[in-house]
Design brief:
The complex is a heterotrimer of chains A (277), B (714) and C (228). Chain B is of the alpha+beta class. Chain B contains 18 helices and 28 strands. In chain C, 28% of the residues lie in helices and 12% in strands. The chains are: A alpha+beta (277), B alpha+beta (714), C alpha+beta (228).
Chain lengths: 277, 714, 228
């Protein structure tokens, strides 16, 4: 049964200033952009909030740019825009690969990177990439702008450290050092929700993050340490069992997720090992 | 592939890919499905359901302002509180005893949808311990024994006895249009129901019993129907009953359209099955004795379970001859939503088991999977487990050989060699066309053909649900009359104007109803002689010809002992599947499916290919992806994000190959096609996995199950 | 990727001469061509001004408050299949709700109401969207195209629609409008798509009849013919 949505209160911001002014006085409002998560949650009755601020029209939160050190992705940048961006293709190709696997085109045209972050689902596909890239979240409120390291952005299952009145306006991503590797294991070839996601970076050190295997996206620090210090892949697989503790749910099992996460780790290592024939 | 059958020489209409009758309206968005219809003063209905799988209702609390609402419970039912089908065990609305989760208890209606959704109803219940495991069930809806020869004697002769247990899960239909009905009351106390449905006269019959009215007081009209696959065979009766009760009480047209979640939780699914095989074989692979046990989970009420079981057990040996056979089947009660009809109707479950088991037998004997099939496959004149002598159009070997040829089977196997993680699998199967046993005789279907100045109009209750009923029946009539396809109209499936040509199920529409119309057309052609339709009508007045089903003379069936001719004839199918599995993720990538079917005659080759490809894709989902997660008797994944059907990216190339061995009593030789493609691919996939080193015996063979088989069961 | 136009203020938008009663029996086609031209002209002018820098991290000072709507009905004007429409919508209503239940334009289909099946796919400013997850008020002053808008002015089928008929790229037809919209959007961006691009472009549309190969063949068949 669809849930009665009741009397929604819908404010339509046309500028960032308007949005932040409203959020300052009414911080309980949920920002709406592509609505690909919010309306699903409303229809299922998972979201009880009734007050929203629509920020989809804020063109100042769109777009992808770069300087010598960073990529900057506006919070309202859609998956489609990331798929088509030459900057993403050049500096963060794993994000392009990731975005192509999120929903169909209809959803890619609407889903935004900021929304993926704010929604905070452990299955959020872009999150492992942002974790290994050590992105900074640019959050803005009427009292100013602050940069929050992505790795400390989540306080728990679907909980963020955003303060009342703050809005994610952009993500800053240091140009990733080393080889990028991304793989999503979903329930089918397209239009799927992930069961295990891995993003890896292999340069002088190794960075690894997994999605859908814990309450939030997880950086596999112990595993990274093993690999960064010259340990074997077998040792790394053992270490991974201490980094992630996946659960059984509707989509998969704990045992499958653990096994596949280990396999993905090996696959990452093999395919990023140079001079392989 | 279709090109092979674009033979335009022999027939003008039949065998040609004419335009779909409703193609234009479907591509322009003009086709009217149930939710697209509105009536003056219409209100919306909602069903309040149980949340527990078993218990008693203690009290119902209406925690909303009831002003403006129509509220219906079982006491508002003017006739009998039941959904008339096979057994009279399923109430329309619960009186006190809850037998499954999501069982309808109370109905609400209101002019505003939002108000309707807001209304809070709390059902206070006393829970009882539910029966959820079919093996623990003490209540049997139907038990069937098929016996031939002496299995113990057969086992005595065997060199080896091979045993195996195979399991298949629930499957959800996922027609993209959810179920829906609109009931419109008339001042004289009659009711008209419009809706998404396969079987107008099932709904008609159920409404007569529920309302306690004669047939003239009920009219059922099919709206354009967005897919059925069996899912709109029996359940629409329930929704129609609910809508009718609300409409009668409110005096207003009432629309009930299910939300996807409600549809996936409350309506029927494919019966899960456990099938056990014990087979005695000679060293050369000859089947000497087959002992098969089939257990199906019927859910909380009988619905169509006896006939699902019936088709399941009759097909349970697979298309193989064996002198000594015992098949014991039972379908049992559990406190889960009732399972119902789904494309294949019991056969996909038992054929999965028999085909997977046969590969295990071959493996045990060190034989090739093809060799054991060649040796044992039915030939014309062979005798089935029920004692049916198979007719001339028995083409098991032909479809097998054609599939091997089309797939380049032996070369691919040679190429794969011992290459791990890739395998080729085969499944060979049969599917009885039309109702089982004496079913068609009992149905006594009627079809009418009416002469129009411009041609003729088909009047049947057989529904268009995407498979091409309208087009294909018009082709048969046009061909028989020698007129153009465009001169044949097809009446809407409206019980006020069409006779009961039986339900649109069991791959019977072309073979049975098509044949009835062919007979109508033959007589019409004879009666008109050399006149044009216009001349005839002017000279003789209206002409309407109605024909009633006539059993082919030789067919005999003993329902008590399950002996005789189970079906008029059979379609024959073979799949070859080439796949590989991923050692990192345990995901299966099907590279190619060959699907060869003897369907007698392809009236419309593209439609026939569409049926084959569609059924095959559904079967691939059944085999690999589609898992209904039940928690305490309730569907826990009633969403299209968590119940996974194949997308364009998941559907492999499917090569449909049609073989045409005519059936003497089918129109232009046609047999059934709709269900058969669902029967085999799951077994072919699991057999290909076996060849690629993965031993799974339960579907869906999800990556999780494959991982368990690879990593934990060695 | 075209940026969606910023919403014009009331002063900027000349309200077309349209029918405001959503349940009016007058067909939506009845709105004047003059009104349509005024609206589209206004929209394209605004699209230019909407391109602002994404770099500035400027401090934002307290400003005006956004327009609020709801919970009651709010006027809603947008361009539908080339014609300006104005209707009403509550904030909770989706674009699909407005099309189907207020404008009685029923070609768009609801299959899951959760963005998972693609049956309700429409074009907003030329790009596909699931209309069941699009708040109606969010389409104010945007361009919406539904399956009804694909048919050419003379009533004949678009090349894609014709290809779907020719290839029998449908069975039950319920997913068909969504597939047609996805395919139409593909051709807008990619005039000569490969088979892989076609398969990917419609992978967000579920077809349970699984007419997939017919659909893909149909879409590919217009590649070298007329553009939709």
């Amino acid at each position: 049964m669809k849930t009665a949505l009741g009397n929604l209160d819908f404010a339509d911001a046309t500028t960032l200033s308007e949005a932040l002014t409203l959020l300052a006085s009414e911080p309980d409002r949920v920002p709406l952009a592509g609505c690909t998560d919010v309306y699903v949650g409303l229809n299922f009755g998972h979201i009880e909030k009734k007050r929203f601020v629509n920020i989809w029209s804020l063109s100042e939160l769109r777009g992808i740019s770069e300087n010598a050190d960073f990529l900057r992705i506006g919070a309202l940048t859609t998956y489609t825009e990331m798929i088509e961006s030459p900057i993403i293709a050049k500096f963060l190709p794993m994000m392009r690969d990731c975005a192509r696997l999120i929903g169909g085109c209809q959803v890619q045209n609407r889903g935004t990177v900021g929304g993926n972050i704010a929604n905070g689902s452990p299955a959020g596909d872009t999150l492992p990439i942002l974790a290994v890239a050590e992105a900074m979240i640019i959050a803005q409120s009427l009292s100013g702008t602050r940069k929050i390291p992505f790795l400390s952005f989540y306080a728990g299952y679907r909980k963020t450290v955003l303060l009342p009145g703050e809005l994610i306006v952009a993500i800053e991503i240091p140009k990733p050092p080393g080889a990028q590797w991304f793989r999503k294991v979903g329930t089918r070839a397209a239009n799927a929700i992930s069961k295990v996601v891995i993003a890896g970076l292999r340069g002088e050190t190794v960075r690894l993050a997994f999605g859908s295997v814990g309450p939030t996206v997880i950086r596999a620090r112990r595993t990274e340490a093993v690999l960064s210090s010259g340990g074997t892949i077998a040792q790394a697989r053992d270490a991974l069992a201490h980094d992630i503790h996946p659960i059984d749910d509707l989509r998969s099992t704990s045992r499958y997720r653990m096994q596949v996460a280990e396999n993905l780790l090996s696959a990452f290592w093999d395919s990023t090992t140079p001079n392989q024939s | 592939m279709v090109e092979n059958f674009r033979n335009q020489d022999r027939y003008e209409s039949v065998g040609r890919n004419v335009d779909r009758k409703e193609g234009m309206s479907k591509v322009t968005g003009q086709a009217k499905y149930v939710d697209d219809l509105n009536f003056e003063g219409m209100i919306y209905g909602r069903t309040i359901r149980s949340e527990i799988p078993r218990g008693k209702i203690k009290a119902i609390h209406l925690e909303f302002d009831t002003e403006g609402f129509t509220i219906v419970d079982y006491r508002d039912i003017p006739g009998k509180n039941l959904i008339a089908l096979i057994q009279d065990d399923q109430p329309c609305l619960v009186e006190s005893e809850i037998n499954h989760a999501d069982e309808p208890i109370l109905l609400l209606a209101h002019p505003e949808k939002e108000k309707l959704l807001e209304a809070k109803v709390r059902i206070e219940t006393i829970s009882e311990i539910p029966v959820l495991d079919p093996l623990q069930s003490g209540k049997i809806f139907k038990e069937i024994l098929i016996s031939k020869g002496d299995i113990e004697a057969g086992f005595g002769l065997a060199d080896r006895i091979v045993e195996g247990e195979y399991r298949t899960g629930h499957q959800e239909h996922v027609y993209i249009e959810p179920n829906g009905m609109i009931a419109v009351p008339t001042p004289d106390g009659a009711i008209t129901v419009y809706g998404s449905l396969q079987c107008p006269y099932y709904v008609h019959g159920a409404l007569m019993v529920l309302l306690g009215v004669p047939e003239t007081k009920v009219r059922v009209v099919q709206t354009e129907t967005g897919g059925g696959f069996g899912g709109k065979e029996d359940y629409p009766s329930i929704i129609a009953c609910h809508a009718a009760l609300l409409a009668l009480k409110s005096g207003r047209p009432t629309k009930i359209v299910y939300d996807r979640v409600e549809d996936m939780q409350a309506t029927t699914r494919r019966h899960p099955a456990i099938v056990r095989h014990r087979t005695g074989v000679a060293a050369d692979g000859t089947l000497l004795s087959m002992d098969v046990e089939v257990i199906m989970d019927g859910g909380a009420y009988c619905t169509l379970s006896p006939v699902v079981l019936s088709r399941g057990v009759i097909h349970a040996t697979g298309p193989y001859r064996c002198d000594n056979v015992r098949i014991r089947g039972r379908v049992v009660h559990t406190n889960t939503p009732p399972n119902g009809a789904f494309r294949g109707f019991g056969a996909p479950q038992t054929l999965f088991a028999s085909e997977v088991h046969l590969d295990r037998i071959a493996h045990t004997l060190g034989l090739d999977p093809i060799e054991i099939r060649e040796k044992n496959a039915f030939r014309p004149g062979d005798v089935t487990a029920t004692g049916q002598v198979l007719p001339e159009d028995t083409s098991a070997l032909q479809v097998l050989r054609e599939a091997l040829k089309k797939s380049d089977y032996y070369n691919i196997r040679k190429k794969i060699g011992t290459q791990a993680k890739r395998g080729v699998g085969v499944a060979l199967y049969w599917h009885g066309s039309g109702f089982t046993g004496a079913g068609e005789v009992k149905l006594a279907s009627k079809a009418t053909l009416e002469l129009l100045p411009s041609g003729a109009k088909v009047r049947v209750a057989s529904t268009e649900i995407g498979q091409g009923t309208r087009t294909m029946l018009a082709q048969i009539v046009a061909q028989t009359l020698g007129w153009s396809y465009d001169s044949i109209e097809v009446s809407p499936a409206d019980t006020a104007v069409v006779p009961d040509s039986g339900p649109t199920v069991a791959s019977r529409t072309c073979m049975i109803v098509g044949r009835l119309l062919q007979r109508c057309a033959e007589e019409m052609r004879f009666r008109i002689g050399n006149l044009t339709p216009k001349q005839y009508l002017e000279k003789h007045g209206p002409l309407e010809i109605t024909k009633v089903y006539e059993k082919p003379p030789a067919i005999q069936w003993d329902d008590e002992h399950y002996r005789g001719d189970a079906y008029g004839t059979y379609g024959w199918g073979c799949n070859v599947v080439d796949l590989e599995w991923d050692a990192v993720t345990y995901e299966v990538k099907v590279k190619k499916v060959i699907a060869v079917f003897d369907i007698g005659k392809a009236i419309h080759p593209i439609f026939a290919a569409g049926q084959i490809e569609g059924g095959t894709a559904q079967a691939i989902g059944y085999a690999l992806h589609e898992e209904v997660v039940m928690r305490n008797g309730r569907v826990a994944n009633p969403q299209l994000t968590n119940y996974i059907i194949p997308t364009t990216m998941d559907t492999p190339p499917i090569e449909a190959v049609i073989v045409e061995n005519s059936y003497r009593f089918g129109p232009f030789g046609a047999k059934g096609v709709g269900e058969m493609p669902m029967d085999g691919p799951a077994a072919a996939i699991v057999n290909a996995l076996f060849a690629a080193g993965v031993d799974v015996r339960e579907i869906p063979a999800t990556p999780e199950r494959i991982m368990e088989a690879v990593c934990y069961s060695r | 990727m075209k940026k969606p136009p910023k919403k014009p203020t009331e002063a900027e938008t000349e309200q077309p001469n349209s029918i405001s009663d959503p349940k009016s029996t007058s067909p939506y086609r009845g709105w004047t061509r003059r009104g349509f031209l005024q609206t589209t002209a206004g929209l394209s002018a605004l699209a230019v001004t909407a391109r602002t820098s994404v770099h500035a991290d400027q401090d934002v000072s307290k400003g005006s408050l956004p327009t609020r709507s709801g919970p009651a009905e709010t006027p809603l004007a947008f361009e539908l299949n080339g014609v300006a429409v104005s209707t009403q919508a509550e904030p909770r209503e989706t674009l699909a709700d407005v099309l189907l239940y207020r404008l009685n334009l029923t070609g768009t289909k609801i299959g899951c109401d959760r963005g998972a099946c693609g049956a309700c796919t429409v074009l907003v400013d030329g790009a596909t969207r699931v209309s069941c997850l699009t708040p109606a008020l969010d389409i104010a002053n945007r361009r919406v195209t539904t399956v009804e808008g694909l048919t050419l002015k003379d009533g004949s089928l678009s090349p894609l629609q014709q290809a779907f008929v020719n290839h029998d790229a449908l069975q039950c037809g319920y997913c068909t409008p969504g597939f047609l919209m996805s395919a139409t959007a593909l051709y807008t961006k990619t005039p000569a798509p490969t088979k892989e691009q076609v398969v990917e472009a419609v992978s967000g549309n579920l077809c349970r009849c699984a007419a997939h190969s017919h659909i893909i063949d149909a879409i590919l068949s217009v590649k070298n013919g007329e553009r939709p």
